[in-house]
Amino acid sequence: MKEIHNQNEEQMQIPSIPNILTKIIIFGLIQLLALHLLAWKLFWLDAWIFTGLFTVLFCINALWLRNYDPKLLVKRLKPKKSKDEWKSWDKKISTALSICTILIYIVSSLDGGRFQWVKVSQWIKIIGLLGFIIAYLIIHFIFRVNNY
């Protein structure tokens, strides 16, 4: 059993920094495109700020993880091959999280960008942005202390 484990570790290739940054930036551009297409607005400042901040924080976290725990980075970047490998609660949580994330993007784009159903003051937006940053820092801290 140890021989297989050691063999898998030797085969593990840590992605290069340009490779990591390219993937994250492409994801950020896709995210930005999706937000702007749904909002039907190119100059939607809130989307630019959110996507830019998300991309920068994602890059920082991935680069830190590459240096601190490269095995975990490889594990996180490589999805499980099939849903059969997932535990039943993982399937449910993953499905629910995916649906909620898609709905958040759709509703926020239609509301904030296109129709502006709800007027939100700048102070509330700033508080939300700070909450987002704090939540991301908490996730970063969790990666530091728990590599499972």
Strand percentage, roughly?
Answer: under 5%
Task: Give the uncertain stretches in residue-range form.
Answer: 1-7
Query: How many structural domains?
Result: 1
Query: How far apart are the termini?
Result: 20 Å
> Roughly what percent helix?
over 70%
Question: How would you explain this protein's 3D organization?
Answer:
The chain is mainly alpha-helical and 148 residues long. It has one domain. The protein is 79% helix and 0% strand. The protein is built from 6 helices and no strands.
Write the layout of secondary structure elements.
Blueprint: H1 2-11, H2 17-39, H3 45-68, H4 70-77, H5 88-115, H6 122-145
Helix pairs in contact: 2-3, 2-5, 3-4, 3-6
